[in-house]
């Protein structure tokens, strides 16, 4: 009934002049907002005006509105509410009855007004079938829901923006954003927050409505923007489902959460590289590192620091996501760096569990604690060597030494200064970790050196009390004392050739028998003269007693010539018997 049925008779020229004069007086007296004008015999009662009115209906605008229309006696004969669909039309083009064409001008969205239309600006003397009698004055109760013009553009307003914006949205980028969507009158139709997940889409590839494709351009991660999209750049005449009616202007409040391009590679920044970097990591190395993992908006999704454990892995071998595999190569021990991974080099469209959504860009702040290669050997660096060095440590030697042990990041683990006595060990006796045993060999008394021990020659993957698993160890060593040792299984060895007549030399009183006292006196004499050497680190009396028992074969308390045999000869006899 709001569409024009038949043109009403035009007023006489004199009447038209009076109307124009009256309209000019009204415009001088008030604006559309804040007064109730009478427009060409159309009486307007603006009984509900919104506080904010950024725009008023002008001739040529399209409008979407609800209405109830009654006769002057209050009888309703038509209502858009009852039909469940708002009316849509264009003003100033003769497509609405003349009274509404005039009476709707100057309206604001969400404004309510009553427009009283005389017969000559409604259906005139002809009426409208059996519904509207001739010469009827009509009263329209209007509520404006929407307005737009074909000349409208997408309107954007930045609500908040991050301090630092290194990159903004461009066409072909992939974005993840949260949004609240409302109609122009404030009616909500959708929200990503209610769904608990972002809206994810390519930009400029037709995945989004045209207005959103345009309105999101130039946004930074963390920016909040209001985007107003006219219907012809949104869902147009068809609308979308039950929530978005035909010809609806859409208002989006958008928060950009993430941004990348499918062609992106990893980026490395904020590098802090130690001055000393003897080696950089390569594929195949095993690395221990700490990390903080965040999204582009700064929200943390994981951190190794909270677990108080490094993340340990081989790099360049597919044990971690491809972007991290790449970002961990070429680093120095102790280096810090930020590595940003696009989704296709992280967890892709599927994401990972509840913490990492699909298509998320990941940012890792990394601190490399150490790395090694399974083929690494012990590294020895001599820091001080005495001028005189007649003896060097070797397998079976008893040594006393000072040490400080730390991780490669400087974390102190152990020190001999924590104890009252020097540390001692017999080299090759499996008393210390293999790498330390190796690092202590070939040292002079007074020599100082640093020794780097890879975990497979240290405490391995499991670690030890106070030592993390797979840790590379750094030792500072100083050899304080050295006692040359004897081979495994020996208690005494000859430094020089043994006497040809060993028993006669041992039988000091030449009575044909050697008791333990005489045996011990002989052995101690050989050691004192440097002709023989006892096993270091063992009480000499225990060694002599043990050696005597081995030679006193009949256990009568004395050794005779027939009983005396060198261990070398015994070993030869035993081997012969076994063969």
Automatic annotation (TrEMBL):
Protein name listed in UniProt: peptidylprolyl isomerase
Signal peptide residue numbers: 1-35
GO MF annotation, one: calcium ion binding
Location within or outside the cell: Endoplasmic reticulum
EC number: 5.2.1.8
Database matches in Pfam families: EF-hand_5, FKBP_C
Cellular component annotations (GO), alphabetically ordered: endoplasmic reticulum
InterPro entries to which the protein is assigned, alphabetical: EF-hand-dom_pair, EF_hand_dom, FKBP-like_isomerase, PPIase_dom_sf, PPIase_FKBP_dom
Organism: Oncorhynchus tshawytscha (Chinook salmon)
């Amino acid at each position: 009934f709001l569409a024009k049925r038949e043109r009403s008779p035009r007023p006489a020229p004199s009447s038209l002049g009076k109307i124009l004069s009256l309209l000019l007086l009204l415009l001088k007296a008030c604006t559309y907002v804040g007064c109730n004008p009478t427009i060409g015999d159309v009486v307007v009662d603006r009984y509900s005006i919104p506080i904010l009115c950024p725009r008023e209906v002008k001739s040529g605008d399209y409008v979407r509105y609800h209405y109830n229309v009654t006769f002057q006696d209050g009888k309703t004969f038509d209502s858009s509410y009852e039909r469940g669909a708002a009316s849509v039309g264009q003003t100033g083009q003769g497509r609405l009855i003349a009274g509404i064409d005039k009476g709707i001008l100057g309206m604001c969205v969400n404004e309510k007004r009553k427009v009283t239309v005389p017969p000559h600006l409604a259906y005139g003397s002809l009426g409208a079938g059996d519904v509207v009698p001739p010469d009827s004055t009509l009263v329209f109760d209007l509520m404006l829901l929407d307005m737009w013009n074909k000349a409208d553009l997408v309107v954007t307003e930045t609500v908040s923006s991050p301090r630092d914006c290194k990159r903004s949205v461009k066409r072909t980028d992939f974005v993840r954003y949260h949004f609240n969507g409302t109609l122009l009158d404030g009616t909500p139709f959708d929200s990503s927050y209610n769904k608990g997940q972002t809206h994810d889409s390519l930009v400029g590839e037709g995945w989004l409505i045209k207005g959103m494709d345009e309105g999101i351009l130039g946004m930074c991660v963390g920016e909040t923007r209001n985007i107003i999209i006219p219907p012809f750049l949104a869902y147009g005449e068809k609308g979308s489902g039950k929530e978005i009616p035909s010809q609806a202007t859409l208002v989006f409040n958008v928060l950009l959460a993430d941004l990348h391009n499918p062609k992106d590679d990893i980026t490395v920044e904020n590098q802090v590289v130690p001055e000393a970097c003897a080696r950089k990591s390569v594929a195949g190395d095993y690395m221990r590192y700490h990390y903080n993992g965040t999204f582009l908006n700064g929200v943390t999704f994981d951190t190794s620091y909270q677990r108080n454990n490094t993340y340990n892995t081989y790099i360049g071998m597919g044990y971690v996501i491809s972007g991290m595999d790449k970002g961990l190569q070429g680093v120095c021990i102790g280096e810090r760096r930020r590595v940003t991974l696009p989704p296709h080099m992280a967890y892709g469209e599927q994401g990972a569990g509840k913490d990492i959504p699909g298509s998320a860009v990941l940012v890792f702040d990394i601190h490399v604690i150490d790395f090694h290669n399974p083929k690494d050997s012990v590294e020895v660096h001599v820091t001080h060597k005495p001028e005189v060095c007649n003896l060097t440590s070797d397998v079976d030697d008893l040594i006393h030494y000072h040490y400080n042990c730390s991780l490669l990041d400087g974390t102190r683990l152990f020190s001999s200064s924590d104890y009252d006595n020097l540390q001692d060990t017999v080299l090759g006796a499996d008393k210390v970790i293999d790498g330390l045993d190796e690092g202590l060999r070939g040292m002079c008394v007074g020599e100082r050196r640093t020794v780097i021990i890879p975990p497979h020659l240290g405490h391995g993957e499991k670690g030890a009390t106070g030592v993390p698993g797979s840790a590379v160890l750094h030792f500072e060593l100083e050899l304080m004392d050295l006692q040359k040792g004897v081979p495994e299984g020996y208690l005494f060895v000859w430094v020089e050739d043994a006497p040809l007549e060993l028993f006669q030399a041992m039988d000091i009183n030449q009575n044909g028998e050697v008791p333990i006292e005489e045996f011990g006196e002989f052995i101690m004499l050989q050691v004192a003269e440097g002709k023989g050497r006892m096993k270091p680190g063992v009480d000499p009396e225990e060694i002599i007693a043990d050696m005597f028992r081995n030679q006193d074969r009949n256990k009568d308390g004395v050794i005779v010539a027939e009983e005396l045999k060198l261990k070398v000869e015994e070993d030869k006899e035993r081997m012969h018997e076994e063969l």
